[in-house]
Amino acid sequence: MKAVVFSGTGDGRRLCGLLAERGYDVTVCVATEYGASLVSGIRVLAGRLEVSGMCDVIRDCDIVIDATHPYAEQATKNIRQACESEGKKYLRLVREETDCRNCVYVADAAEAAEYLFDKNGDVFVSTGSKELWMFELIGSRVRARVLDTDEVHEKCRNLKIRSILFKMPPFSYEENLKDFSGCRYLVTKDSGKAGGTDEKLRAAKSLGMEIVMIRRPGEGREGYTLEELENKLQGDSNDIDNRGSV
C-alpha cells in the first residue's frame, strides 16, 4: 500500500518509520529543505504545496496522513481539500493538548502582543519566526528564539526586535532556564510534549514568569494520537476511520 505523509515534525518522522517497517511505500512531504534533511531512508518531497500540487502527489496513494504542526492551520485545510477532491482516506495525527493551569490564553500572536503592550517587564517569545513581526510594537522589551536556518535569518533581518536567539531544537529545561532568564513573560504555543512545551512551562514556572499561551486553531484538533495510529496500523488499515476528516 502507498502512504503519503505531510510532515515536518518529530512524531511525523517516527510515524513514517513505522509505516515503512510495516511494508508501506511511503512518501513524506515537508515544507522546507531543513525538514527534508531530518528524514532518511524514505522518499522525500520538499517544498510548500498548494492544493493542486497536493492532489498530484496523493493521486495514486491509498492513505494520506496529515502530521503537520498543530498550528499549521492552512496546510491542514489544503490537505483536507486535496483528499476530498481525490477521494482519499484522510487521517490526522494530533498531539495531546497541554493542561496549562494559571496560563493566560489568547487566540493568536496579535492578541498576545496586544495583551503585553502595556505590561511592565521583558517578554520572551518562543512561537517561531512567522508571526514575530507582530511583537515589534513592544520590540524594546522582546527577546525571541527562532530556528537557525538561512530562511529564518533572512525573515528576521529587518525586524525591530531587541534580541533574537537563533538556535535549533530540542531545548532542555536547563537551556530554557538560561534563555528565559530576566524575562517576566513567556509567549508560547501548545506544541505538545513532542514540541518541548513541557520543558518550556517548567522553566517558566521555575522563574516565576507569567505564561501567555496561544490556543491551538480549531482546524485539525480532532484525530489520532501517535500511539493510537501505531495500534491501528498493526491491523488492517481499512479499519481506520477518517477521524479528523471533513
Give a description of the structure.
- The chain has 246 residues and is of the alpha/beta class.
- 33% of the residues lie in helices and 20% in strands.
- The chain contains 9 helices and 11 strands.
- A 6-stranded parallel β-sheet has the order 6-11-10-7-8-9, sandwiched between helices. A 5-stranded parallel β-sheet has the order 3-2-1-4-5, with helices on both faces.
- Helix 3 crosses helix 4 and helix 7 crosses helix 8.
Which helices and strands occur, and which strands form pairs?
Elements: E1 2-6, H1 10-21, E2 25-30, H2 33-37, E3 43-46, H3 51-58, E4 63-66, H4 73-86, E5 89-92, E6 104-106, H5 109-116, E7 123-125, E8 142-147, H6 150-156, E9 163-167, H7 173-180, E10 185-189, H8 197-206, E11 210-214, H9 226-233
Parallel strand pairs: 1-2, 1-4, 2-3, 4-5, 6-11, 7-8, 7-10, 8-9, 10-11
Shape: elongated
Order of helices and strands: EHEHEHEHEEHEEHEHEHEH
Helix % is: 25-40%
Helical region count?
Answer: 9
The order of strands across the largest sheet is: 6-11-10-7-8-9
Total number of strands = 11
Q: β content, as a range?
A: 15-25%
| Low-pLDDT segments, ≥5 res | none
What is the rounded Rg?
19 Å
Features:
alpha/beta, single chain, 246 residues, five-stranded parallel beta sheet, elongated, six-stranded parallel beta sheet
Give a short summary of the structure.
This protein has nine helices and eleven strands. With 246 residues, it is of the alpha/beta class.
